[in-house]
Design goal:
alpha/beta, 2 domains, 7 strands, globular, binds nicotinamide-adenine-dinucleotide, SDR, NAD(P)-bd_dom_sf, 3-oxoacyl-[acyl-carrier protein] reductase
C-alpha cells in the first residue's frame, strides 16, 4: 500500500534502537525524510546510515537526551517544524508501590508525560498552519491495564493519555491527528532487561523468564519492532486521517479485555 507520505519530514525521538527504530525504519521505507534522536551517538549514526542506504531518504541525527530541556531544544531546532512527530523515550524503572518518593515520580512524569507534551506543543502550531500533521506517542499497555512492577509508568503514561484525549479533538479540525501506540511486550533491549529482572527476582534463568512471559501472551511470542513500526507508519499515512485520539494496543492479545 502506498502510504502517501513520500517527501514528508518526520522527527522520531529515541530511535537508534527498539520500537523507535522500528518506527523510523517504516517511515523511511515510505519515503519520509527523518530527524532521528537518541542519547548515544554511535548507535544513532549506525542506525541512520542503515536507513539512508536501504531507503535513500535524508536522515539527520541529534544525539541528545530528549527528556531534558536542552536536549529537546536541540532536537526541535534540527527538525524545524516536522510534518510527523513520533515521541518516545526510555521507560521508568520497575519496583514496588512503596519504593517511590516524589523525585522518582517527577523523573517519570518528566520523561514519559511532560516531554511528549512539550514536543507536541512545539510542533503543533506549524502542523495546524499547514493543515496537515501526524503525531504518534509511544506509550504502553500499562495505560489500559496496570502492570504491578511499573507503577511509575502506569501513572505517568496515563497522564499523557488524558492530555492527548483532550488535545487531539482540538487540533483535528486543522487536519492534524494525535494517537497513542500502546506496546505490549516486544523483543527489544528494554524487554531483555525486564526479563533479567524477573530472572533475578525469581532465581530462574533468563530463558525461563522469557518463556514464562511469552506464555502470558495469546500470540505466544514477543512483538517485533518491525511490526510495531508498520502500525506507526500507517497511523502517519494519508489513509489514517479519520483516526483521532485513539489508544491502539499492540500486545498479541495480552490485555484481557472486550474493548
Ligand atoms: P529501548 O530501551 O530498547 O529503546 C532504546 C532507544 O531509546 C534507544 O535508541 C535509546 O537511545 C533511546 N532513548 C532512551 N531514552 C532516551 C532519552 N532520554 N533521550 C533520547 N533517546 C532515548 O526501549 P523500547 O523497548 O524500544 O521501548 C520504547 C518505549 O516503549 C519505552 O518507553 C518503553 O518503556 C515502552 N515500552 C516498551 C515495551 C517493550 O516490550 N519493549 C513494552 C511497553 C512499553
Amino acid at each position: 500500500m502506498d502510504l502517501g507520505i513520500k517527501g514528508k519530514r518526520a522527527l522520531v525521538c529515541a530511535s537508534s534502537k527498539g520500537l523507535g527504530f522500528g518506527c523510523a525504519a517504516a517511515l523511511a521505507e515510505a519515503g519520509v525524510d527523518l530527524v532521528m534522536n537518541a542519547r548515544g551517538a554511535e548507535a544513532l549514526e549506525a542506525a541512520a546510515a542503515d536507513l539512508r542506504s536501504r531507503f535513500g531518504v535524508h536522515v539527520q541525527t541529534v544525539a541528545a537526551d530528549v527528556t531534558t530541556e536542552d536536549g529537546r531544544a536541540e532536537v526541535l531546532a534540527a527538525a524545524a517544524s516536522p510534518d510527523i512527530l513520533v515521541t518516545n523515550a526510555g521507560g521508568p524503572p520497575p519496583g514496588q508501590w512503596s519504593d517511590w518518593d516524589r523525585d522518582d515520580f517527577i523523573a517519570a512524569l518528566d520523561a514519559n508525560m511532560l516531554t511528549p507534551i512539550a514536543l507536541m506543543k512545539a510542533c503543533l502550531p506549524a502542523m495546524m498552519d499547514r493543515g496537515w500533521g501526524r503525531i504518534v506517542n509511544i506509550t504502553s499497555q500499562s495505560v489500559k491495564a496496570p502492570i504491578a512492577v511499573l507503577g511509575l509508568s502506569n501513572a505517568a503514561r496515563t497522564g499523557l493519555t488524558g492530555y492527548v484525549a483532550g488535545t487531539s479533538r482540538q487540533v483535528a479540525p486543522s487536519g492534524v491527528t494525535i494517537n497513542n501506540l500502546l506496546p505490549g511486550i516486544h523483543a527489544t533491549d528494554r524487554a531483555e532487561s525486564l526479563d533479567q529482572g524477573v530472572s533475578r527476582a525469581q532465581n530462574i534463568s533468563v530463558e525461563d523468564a522469557k518463556a514464562q512471559r511469552e506464555a502470558t501472551i495469546p500470540a505466544r511470542r514477543y512483538g517485533t519492532a518491525a511490526e510495531f513500526g508498520a502500525t506507526c507508519a500507517f497511523l502517519c499515512s494519508q489513509h489514517a486521517g479519520f483516526i483521532v485520539g485513539q489508544n491502539i494496543l499492540l500486545d498479541g492479545g495480552a490485555t484481557n479485555a472486550t474493548i
